[in-house]
Structure formats: structure tokens, C-alpha cells
Amino acid sequence: MSTAFPLPTDISSTTVANTASLLRIVAFGLISGAAIASRLFAVINFESIIHEFDPWFNYRATRVLAAKGFYEFWNWFDPTAWYPLGRVVGGTVYPGLMATSGVIYNFLHYFNLPVDIRNICVLLAPGFSALTAWATYMFTTEMKDSSAGLLAAAFIGIVPGYISRSVAGSYDNEAIAIFLLMITFYLWIKALKLGSALFGTLAAVFYFYMVAAWGGYAFITNMIPVHALVLLLMGRFSSRLYVAYCSWYAIGTLSSMQVPFVGFQPVRTSEHMGALGVFGLLQIVAFASLVRSHVSSKQFQNLLAISVVTMGVLGAGAFVVMTYKGWIAPWTGRFYSLWDTGYAKKYIPIIASVSEHQPTAWPSFFMDLQLLIFLFPAGVVMCFRDLRDEHVFVIIYAVVASYFAGVMVRLMLTLTPVVCVSAAVALSTLLDTYVDASEPDVPEERTEANGSSASDGKKTKKAGAAVGSQAGASAAAAASSAISDLVSASKSNAQSRQKGIWGADARLVILLNAIGMLVFFVFHCTWVTSNAYSSPSVVLASTNPDGSQHIIDDYREAYYWLRQNTPQDAVVMSWWDYGYQIAGMADRVTLVDNNTWNNTHIATVGKAMSSPEEVAYPILRKHDVDYVLVIFGGLLGYSGDDINKFLWMVRIAQGVWPDEIQEPNYFTPQGEYRVDDRASETMRNSLMYKMSYYRFSELYGGGNALDRVRNQQIPKVGPTLDYLEEAFTTENWIVRIYKVRKEDPLGRDLKTANAFAQGKKRKRGKPVSRRRAIV
Amino acid sequence: MKLSGLYSLFTIPFALAASNTGKSQLVSRAAAGNGVIRLDASTFDLLTAPSRDWSASIHFTALDKRRRCAPCKEFDPAWNAVAKAWATVPAEHRDNHFFATLDFDEAPTVFQKLNLASAPVVWVYGPTEGPRASGKNVPSKYDFSNGFEAEPLAFHLSNHTPIPIPYKAPIDWGRWITFLGGLLVFALTLRFIAPILQSRWTWAFITIVTSLTMTGGFMFTRIRGSPYTGADGAWIAGGYQNQFGQEVQVVALIYGTLAFSVVMLTMIVPYQSSPARQRLQVYLWSGVLMLVYSVLVTLFRVKNRGYPFKLLL
């Protein structure tokens, strides 16, 4: 056979194999290094700090776990959250993340390595990203081969879609969950391929870890059953499938019920019913195929088929009835809103208000996945060409995950692994084809052979169809035979036709093109990671005119002020976004936090924020609020502030008190959302507005006070406060803290008391009720 | 002085009678209009008379074609359906709440008087007398943030009516018939379409098209209801977190072309029978790949102005 470029001939095959394996190990080491290193931008640009909101709670819980031990953590009741209700933390948390850090912490301390728990938490996500790369490598190796696996590992190591949730300091459940997702999927594929109960059990063990770590475990709970179901429908039932699924389901479900937060949900909620249903179906099908292998009578087989269908229908009916009767809980809002996308906005504004629950526009896809996003469909096509059992899994995963990622930005995270796997399959097939040095034979003899083989293919296809129609009686059998015929037809075609590339220039074009695109991908990933995804959002950065970096540290300034200047048991009210941060950094009691379990409590805070002072004050006093904290970005142009979130507070409050709070009242009659002198009366009287713009115009010395977020002029005469007083405002005015006044000692209402103190005369429109003389 | 006092005493029964006749007039008008009173300036004043023991929800609209109010047309059937549902409740409750519609072209003065600049608007006037009197004479507005459907409207208005509105969404017979018909056609033609259904490439096509539309941001346009193009004919929406319907098609087409050229290069080109044709195809598809990718990056630079990289274009 001729070759396009000279190949050395004097190398033994063992040398080649050994070199390949060494290269694989080296490549893998480099991939892990790159995955970890690219996640450290956040630490290098800022410092070793916990990011954003939820991680602050995880960090706080981990500190409790590390300091007091697992049992204390398990029984932890936190009286400082959701004041005055408190929160049973041990039973309302996915403990996997904290337990992982706790184990690492104790492990290191056992070897006398006194590493601070904070650094473990900060670096946990980058560490696990290397493990994710490994799991993806294993998974993709099962799909194609180890060269595709290495590509997939490299992709998932640096792709922004995964980095966005796993930079150093982003200490959230997703940090370890993607690794668990991929390893569970890999073990499932392995179990399915081998029909191995051992791998099925291992899949169940990692599934348990996943359940303990992330609420998104429901994705696995439904992906594996759907895969099994599709294989059944394709007529690919086998004892391998039966063994793999049953070992995974039985052990996985029983162990997942050991997590207190999950409890009996696996047998009581709709999210888990698919897995149970497929489990039951598999038993029926397995029984039927067992009977079929022992009985030959045709009538009996028909009877069997009918009874299997009847049992399936009856089982499905039983689920419906049980759901209707309330024995099985219906879909929870969070999952239901994935299907009925208008549902959350209508009925659960809290879920709809979270920015990561918004739908995804196409630039986000390109930003997060770049060239992988168009290699991905090509890889799916290649999966369809081979269509082994494990390829069916990738295909289902691709469809489901791309839908979910379109509905919610945060679910981009579940799409990313399959995109990496599929793109790696596509690219490595391309490279395989064009790196291969062998050239096909001379073309002359091929034309005839080609023609005859095509007609052969047609014949076999026809024969296949005829066989299929004869079999007729059982649809599944027909489907499987037709499919296998198609497979054999296409394969025979492929074999008879010669495959290969002529010439070195064609190879060079493709390889240069591919390398160029990969280099571009690396540049893109580096740029996106360093610019978009490495900000801790607790500390903000801006650039000075001379190009140097300016750090804006208002959040921590405010939280440390609270920590040092207020009593230990002071109650701080803020919008729920900042609850975890206040608890974590200021160590003060909060009313609501990011664990949004109590809608009414959040609506209460929303009502206080959106009502006039006189209405809000009794609410504040009833909840023992000492300080109110608002985020204001108008001075700096920081758009994530409370005025921009204000409409959600209004909406959530309106959900509970539709008579008192009405959203249209906060708009101008023209339907605009304004904060300048055209703002509506309700808007200007609301507590949030007053706290945000209190004394804001003074800063401009009576000049034009400009709100730089909304680009509107603030009236010169700003709002006044009677029931609150300003306690602290940070350097850039991002955080403003107000102290709630106590009742007036003389029993006047605070408005009158203030007016008196300022020397204003009380208007005497009508006589005030005086003390009556006793007759 | 005395006389005027007497006079006012004298007129009380008349006033009561007037309000009674007013009410009966409203009842008969509501019955005639299928539960909805068509208002003009005078009946509007009657319905919102300062002393009333009834409540009323009034729908201000502009249905005339010249007004070009698309939301009005969209909302009108929902309003009539809810009003019709209310007309079925027992008379003792029904006659305490009225549904009324006021069209701009029939009473522009009322719009001016109420300072209304847009339509459709729904205001609910509470009763000022009788056991249900709330004490405030300011109408409350209905918030359209839940859309123009009848269900949320009925739910909201039930807060203001004596008893909840017995509104039930009508059974969509058309949809059911289509569904059953589709099922029947499917069952009948199963024999013929079975080879198509069993072909993997049918499913490959479905899978690819689905994932391309999803990654093109289709769900974003669905959920946000973004228009197909901008008002001025622009087809690219400004801003990174925004897009128009047409962008879905363009982007999906670009992704599809790029994926297609990769598929051609791996699955078709190696099986070519002549070297010259194969070389041509390799260059062709590589060129397509490079060029379309450059277009994609340029498009992305339009959306994300800070993006520092570019390819050929």
C-alpha cells in the first residue's frame, strides 16, 4: 500500500504502544495542569477568597464541619438564619461538598499539614476539574478511542462553560457535581457494555455521592432510565442491560434515600417515577424474554406479548392514579418550570427572579463553547453512524441537555460535557482520517466495483424489508431486524468502497485548519476565563485611566463594619441575595437568605422594602430588625444593585399581598420604570427608593445628581427618612446601612418627633384629642 | 335654609329610587349583552356613580381598526369569556358585580377624564355602600403581566367579586380532534412510514435540527417573546443578552453549515473515487469552514463588542 508521507518501518509494535502510552500520560498531566492553572486567574487577580453568594454558606457550613465534627454538623440548627424561624441546616442541605472538604482537611491534618480550611474550599473546584477531565477521558474512550478521549479531556479542562462554575473560590455544589456526573455516566456505560453488576454497583455508589452533593442529581435519575427505555424500544434488550440497570437502580435508590434532605422522595415524587417505571418494565420484559426462550407455541407468544403490553399500560395507569390521589407528589416547581416555561414567572416569582434561571441567548452558547458548539452536531452525526448502545446515550444526552441549556443559563453546565465529548469524537475522526498515511489504490478499477456494490446494498436492503414484513407479528423484533439490516447494508457498502485520502497537500490543509481552530479556541478560552468568569463578585475591579487595576471592596468594608460596630445579636434585614454573605462575613442574624425555602418570609421583606416608611416600620419592629442593608450602584454605575432588583421584590410581595402592593404603581403612567422626578408617587415613597437615594444629591453639592446605572437625574430635593437613620455608607456608596430607630420615648410617632426636633411647627388643622377632664 | 333641608330630605327617596332604577337598568343591559354592558359616557357615570352598592370591573379598549390596537383584540375574547362565566352565577350575587366594556370611539371623553393614554386597561370599582363597601373610591388596576389570557384575569377579579368567578377554560376540541386524528393517521400509515421511522438518519435529522435550534437561542425567543426582527428592520438585536427570532435561523444555519462541512470531510470525501475530485472537495469544504467560521466570529463581535479576536473578516 502506498503512503502519502514516508513512515519509519524499523520500529517494533511494542515500542509504538509504549510510546503512545507514555505520551498519553504526559498529555494527561499537561491537561490537568492546564485545567487547574486556568482556574487560578481569580486567585492571582484578586486573592484567595470565596466568591459570590451560595459559596459563602457552603464555606460557613464547612467551617462548622471542620471545627466541630460531622455529628455536630449533622444536627446543626442555625438560629441566626431566617430570624425568627431559624433553619435546620443538617436536614436541608446537600452535604457532599462540605463532607468532601472535611475529609481533605482531616486527611491533610493527619499528616501534619496545617492547611487553612478556606484554602481547601477555594481550591476544591480547580482540583476537581482535573478529575472531571479524567472522567470525561474515560467516558469518551468508551465512545470512540483514547485519542478522542484526550481531546475531550482537553476540551472540558479549559472550556469556559465549565470554568464559569468552577474557578478557584467558586465553592459551590457544581464544583464537584460535574465530576460525579461524568464518572457516573462512564460507569453506567461500562456496566451496560460488560453487563457487569460490579460496574453497576460502582455507578450506584457514585450516584449516591452525586445525590449527596447536588440537587441536579435528578438529571442522572432520568437520563439513565431514558437511555434504557430507548434501548428497549429499539429492540436492544439484553441481559447486559438488565443487569446493569437493576444493579444501578436498586443500590442507587436505596443509598440515595440515606441522604436526609432526599429521604423518601425517590419513591414519592414524579421526578423519580421514570426510573421506577423503567425498572418495572425491565422486569416484565426480562420475564417475557425468559418465557419466550422456553416456549415455542406461536399463540402463546402472542398471548405473552399482549399481556406484557397490558401490564405496562396498567402500571402507567397506576402511576397516574397515584399522582392524582396525591400519593406521589407532582413535579416540583423548579423542575416543572423547565417544561412549562411560563409557569415560574406566574406562580413562583422567586425562581424566575434568579438571574441564572433566565433563558439563554445564542451569544452565551458561543461564548461558553466556541468552536465546540458546531463540532457538536457533527459528532452526533458520527454517533448515528456507529449507533452502538453507548452512542444512543450520547444522542439522548445531546437532545435533552441542549433543550435544558436553552431554557436556563445555569444548565449550560450540564450541556458542556456532552458537547465536549461529541466535539472530540468529531474532531478526532477528522484527524484520524487525514493523519493516516496510507493512500488508497489506483482509482481505475474502482468505478465498476463501486457500482456493483451499490446495487448489492439495495438488494440487501430490500431483502431486509421483506424479512421484516414477514416477521410482522412482534413489532420490536421487526424493528431490530430492520435496523440490523440497515447496519449491515451500510457496513458492507463501506467495506467494499475504498476509503482514504490522496496526496499530502490535502492532509496539510485539513491539519493546519484544525490546528488553527484549536489554537483560536485556546486563546478564546483564556480570554473569556480571565475577563468574564474570574471575578469574585464580592470584590469588584475597575480600570484606572492609566490602565492599572482599581479594586472596589465595598462589600467587605460594609460587612466588617457590621461585624465590628454592631452587637452580636443585631438583626440585619436585606434582600435575600445578601443573606449568606452577611451571615458568612459579618456574622450577624439575617431575616432571609439564598436558601429561598420560605416564600412568605421573603415576601415580608419585599413588602417592607416596597412600602412607605409608616407601613414598613411596624414590620421592621415586629421582626426585631436593627439594621437594614441596601446595595446601591448609582454612584459607580454598578448595575447589579437593589433598585434594579426592586421590581422582583414588588412582584414577590404582590404574590402574597395583592391588595397592598401592586406592580403597576411603581411605573410612571407611561409604563416606564423611572427614578428621577417623573418617578411615580409609590416609587418615591417606598423604603427602597428612599434608602437608595437618601442624601444622594448632596454628594453633587446641589448640582445634577446623576444615577449612572439608569442614566437619570435624581431630584435635587432628595427623600427624607423619619423611621430610619443612616448608619454607614461605604466608600463608593455600593452598600448603605441604615439603623432602625427605636420608638420615641415620649410615645409620639417618629415623624412628629422628628418634625419637633427640627423645630417645625405642627400644623393644627383640627384640634388634637386632648386629655379629657374627669367629670 | 329650612326649606333646603326639607328639600334634601324630600329627594332622598328619589335618589334611592334612581339608584334602584339605575341598578335594574344595568342588570337588564348586562343580560342583553351576554354579561357585558357596552358603555358610553352617560352609562359610565351611572355605573361608577359615587353611591353604589355594586362593584364593577370596566374594560377600556379601542377595538376599532383605525386605532390599530393589537393587544385590545387579543384581550377582548378573554374578557368576554370571563364576563360570560360570571353571568351564570345566581342572580343575588350576579347583580352585585358588573362587567362593562368601554370603547374609545364610543366615549373618548371618558378616556380624557380618566387620563387614560393606553388600552386595554381593566379597572375595578369597589362598592361604596352596602355590606361589601371598602371605603375607598379609587379603582384598582388589573396588571397584565400575566398575559392576556382569561384564566389569570378570572383569578384576579375573583378577589373583587362577591363569590369567585366560576370560569373554566373551555375544552379545546380542535386540539383534541387534531391530536386524535394525528394518532389515527399515524396508526393507519404506520405500515408505510415504518421504514422511515426505523431509519437512523430520520432520527439523526430530528436530533440535529433540535439541537441546532436550541443552541441558536430558540427558547430565549420563545420565553421572552422577542419579535422576529427589530422595529426598523434590523435583524440583529443589540446587546449580548438579547436576540431576535431571525437570529435563531441565521445562527442555526451557520452552525449547521460548519457541522455539515466537518461531516462531509470525514464521511463523504474519503470515499471519493477520483483523486482530483477529492482534492477539490477537501479545498472546498476547508474553505467553507474557514469562511463561515469567520462570519460567525464577526457576528459574535457585533453582539459582544469587547471581543478581541477576529478571523479572516
TrEMBL record, chain A:
It catalyses: a di-trans,poly-cis-dolichyl diphosphooligosaccharide + L-asparaginyl-[protein] = N(4)-(oligosaccharide-(1->4)-N-acetyl-beta-D-glucosaminyl-(1->4)-N-acetyl-beta-D-glucosaminyl)-L-asparaginyl-[protein] + a di-trans,poly-cis-dolichyl diphosphate + H(+). Residues 439-460, 756-775 are annotated as: Disordered. Its main location: endoplasmic reticulum. It is found in: Endoplasmic reticulum membrane. GO terms for biological process: post-translational protein modification; protein N-linked glycosylation via asparagine. The chain crosses the membrane at residues 21-44, 88-108, 120-140, 146-163, 175-191, 241-261, 273-291, 303-324, 365-384, 391-409, 508-529. Residues 569-620 form the STT3/PglB/AglB core domain. This is Dolichyl-diphosphooligosaccharide--protein glycosyltransferase subunit STT3. Residues 23-423 form the Oligosaccharyl transferase STT3 N-terminal domain. Its cofactor is Mg(2+); Mn(2+). Residues 759-775 have a biased composition (Basic residues). Keywords: Endoplasmic reticulum, Glycoprotein, Glycosyltransferase, Magnesium, Manganese, Membrane, Metal-binding, Transferase, Transmembrane, Transmembrane helix. GO terms for cellular component: oligosaccharyltransferase complex. Belongs to the STT3 family. One of its GO terms (molecular function) is metal ion binding. InterPro entries: Oligo_trans_STT3, STT3-PglB_core, STT3_N. Catalytic subunit of the oligosaccharyl transferase (OST) complex that catalyzes the initial transfer of a defined glycan (Glc(3)Man(9)GlcNAc(2) in eukaryotes) from the lipid carrier dolichol-pyrophosphate to an asparagine residue within an Asn-X-Ser/Thr consensus motif in nascent polypeptide chains, the first step in protein N-glycosylation. N-glycosylation occurs cotranslationally and the complex associates with the Sec61 complex at the channel-forming translocon complex that mediates protein translocation across the endoplasmic reticulum (ER).
From TrEMBL, chain B:
It comes from Lentinula raphanica. Its main location: endoplasmic reticulum. It comes from the Eukaryota. SUPFAM superfamilies: Thioredoxin-like. Belongs to the OST3/OST6 family. GO terms for cellular component: oligosaccharyltransferase complex. This is Oligosaccharyl transferase subunit OST3/OST6 family. Keywords: Endoplasmic reticulum, Membrane, Signal, Transmembrane, Transmembrane helix. One of its GO terms (biological process) is protein N-linked glycosylation via asparagine. Residues 1-17 form the signal peptide. The keyword Transferase does not apply. It is found in: Endoplasmic reticulum membrane. Pfam families: OST3_OST6 (PF04756). Subunit of the oligosaccharyl transferase (OST) complex that catalyzes the initial transfer of a defined glycan (Glc(3)Man(9)GlcNAc(2) in eukaryotes) from the lipid carrier dolichol-pyrophosphate to an asparagine residue within an Asn-X-Ser/Thr consensus motif in nascent polypeptide chains, the first step in protein N-glycosylation. N-glycosylation occurs cotranslationally and the complex associates with the Sec61 complex at the channel-forming translocon complex that mediates protein translocation across the endoplasmic reticulum (ER). All subunits are required for a maximal enzyme activity. The keyword Magnesium does not apply. PANTHER family: DOLICHYL-DIPHOSPHOOLIGOSACCHARIDE--PROTEIN GLYCOSYLTRANSFERASE-RELATED, GH11935P. It is a multi-pass membrane protein. The chain crosses the membrane at residues 173-194, 201-220, 250-270, 282-302.
